[in-house]
Amino acid sequence: AAMGERVARRSLTIQDLGQALAAAPVGPSWLRARGPAPALQVHYQPQFDVSSRELTGFEALVRWTHPQRGPISPADFIPVAEETGLIVPLGAWVLMQACLEATRWPAHLKLAVNLSAVQLGSRDLVRTVADALERSRLPPGRLELEITETALMNDPEAVGGLLQALHRLGVRLGLDDFGTGHSSLACLRRYPIDTLKIDRSFVQALSDGPQADMILRTIVQLGHGLGMKTLAEGVETAAQFATLQRHGCSQVQGHHFGAAMTADQVLVLLAPSAAVPEFEL
Ligand code: C2E
Ligand code: MG
Ligand code: MG
Ligand code: MG
């Protein structure tokens, strides 16, 4: 009975998510007519440079508010969207929306967007990315696509070619949740990865003792040794930040610095005194 209920709930989820996506507006939030907030939104979590402490950009994170059930975590609906293939149009929507909204940020700020392994397997990913860049006019160098280790495992040859093609568009590539998957270290050399995103479990383990500290330091050295930038995720305390700084980690992201916020909140953060223009479409 419990399984039947889970299956029913799942098909409900996927149907509702499909509807939310069909109704999702494309275009920056400030160009939207006033009204109820759309069920699907992209939120943005700030990322900072460790040595200068300056804001370097934001990671786009999709948010879904179900009309009856309220907010549903991406950790719950992304896997369902991956199983059904809905992640392909959903991911394309997130990318387009995020690129459009990021064009309003100062030109030195970067945008990171998550790509699912399923998207990497879809035929027109390069086209989709090129489209989003063209339509938004976001300079390709400001976009970083985050992939996970699992995505690299599927078909190393095909994935290698795809990553090279994406790199040729001028976008940067990040390896997300590093250390939690099962990629061999050889992958790191084989693919054109610009940023190593150290999974938050390594940061959170710091309080456990000297071994966690040593592991984190070694990952930072590995990344830098391979010519990559390192970014630690899930930094929640000043003590964690101090350790990362001591180990020479390049960038940080986490609740200690700020959670994901709406596109409008980003604009307020970037220009506290400037009012957001109010256009209507
Ligand atoms: P991720 O890409 O590793 O994103 C980081 C996650 O950690 C986000 O969870 C973020 O809100 C959360 N986080 C940030 N700082 C902290 C912190 O200090 N402590 C803790 N405990 N958590 C923190 P979120 O938004 O729930 O997303 C979960 C995962 O869902 C993401 O992990 C990513 O794998 C996936 N996801 C989110 N949006 C998208 C998307 O648009 N496309 C795809 N394919 N996946 C997405
Ligand atoms: Mg990510
Ligand atoms: Mg991550
Ligand atoms: Mg993740």
UniProtKB/TrEMBL annotation:
It comes from the Bacteria. Residues 10-274 form the EAL domain. This is Diguanylate cyclase (GGDEF)-like protein. The chain holds residues 432 to 712 of 712 of the full protein.
